[in-house]
Automatic annotation (TrEMBL):
It is found in: Secreted. InterPro entries: PLA2, PLA2-like_dom, PLA2_Asp_AS, PLA2_histidine, PLipase_A2_dom_sf. Ca(2+) binds at G53, G55, D72. One of its GO terms (molecular function) is calcium-dependent phospholipase A2 activity. Residues 24-149 form the Phospholipase A2-like central domain. Gene3D superfamilies: Phospholipase A2 domain (1.20.90.10). This is Phospholipase A2. GO terms for cellular component: extracellular region.
Amino acid sequence: ALIFFDFLILLSGLLVLASPNYRALWQFRTMIICTMPDSWPALDYADYGCWCGMGGSGPAVDELDRCCQVHDQCYSDAMQHDECWPILNNPYTEMYSYQCDKPSKTVTCLSDNNPCEMFICECDRKAAMCFATAGYDEANAKLPSDYCE
């Protein structure tokens, strides 16, 4: 019975990782919209270059793709952060506090975040600011997967 209980705990943890809390991803989306009000993040960045969207491999094809590569690495670093628990506080599920200043198109991570939340918030904030300064090249959207090997 104890082994079965341990299995259920492990399984529930894996399900949390496999089915992200879309509210956390929604926060990243709204950060991008703060820095780029006319953007459509789900469409613009879901399949761009070799690093924007699910997964990532190969060299970054341009500055925007590099923003995604750095963001992916930041999320990997968050998973190893001493204050973050991979199942409970992973970047895809952890909610954090931030503020958008619409006139200046800037994002601030708020001081009421715990260390893990602050780390993840800063990952998203830096990526959103990076996206705002990087150019978008239509030629790098929807690249064939073998291009990024």
